[in-house]
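Re: beginner question about structure tokens

> Can someone show what the tokenized structure looks like for a real chain? I only ever see the sequence side.

Sure, here's an example I had lying around. Input first:
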Amino acid sequence: MDRDDVWPSFRPHIVWRVGFLVLGAFLLLVGALAVLVAIAGEEELLPSLIVGGLAGGITWWCWRAWVVALLTDPDGVTVRNFFGSHRLGWSDIERFEMPADAAWGIYLVRRSGSAIMVTAITKPPIASWFKRRTRADQAVEYLNSLLEFKQPAIRGRGVVYVVFDDGDRLYGGYWAPAGERGQPVEWSPRTPAIDEAVRWGRERAPVVLILPAADDVRAYWAGAEPPVGPYADLPVWQGEGIP
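And the corresponding structure tokens:
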């Protein structure tokens, strides 16, 4: 995941969207031709207007299928469904939920207890039947990670990795509130000073690990407190330079 993807947008598969767009364009053409033929006096007007109206309505529905999306940004989310849109702040959201049957979408559960279906993220029924993980499951997990990140109580949880880039000689970090296997939700500014990167990490998580390189399996402890538990045997960063 790139740094620019911290606030991603979720849309139905492009093949599905293009299919609806082509269908809508075709029906719009059929409806327009029916009305033009009626105006020219070659057919009765009322049936042609009915055909044109139906074609226009289905075209509108296809266009709505094209714009269906879930958009995220630092202030909240925008849900665009077939028959309406919703704008909610992060503080209004309790969780994102994958229902047993997500063929029509997932649920955004509000703190008030009501739920909004998000049709931009769906899971094929066959995947639900065989309990297979799909991109929809990953999307729900990532959205809940973003939600946790936006809650003030999330500070003081998870792990921060500080990585040295030997190419440009800069340090960068990323924070995963859910732990080592969780999705990163925030990246630090890149800096030539390792102490700045470590300070950024300590402000967010109790576990701060320095990786001398992105592909390096070694890790050095840089948390504010001494390492314990599974990190007890890690070498401790001494406060200067690359370990």
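Each token stands for a local structural state, so reading them left to right follows the chain. The mean pLDDT is 78.
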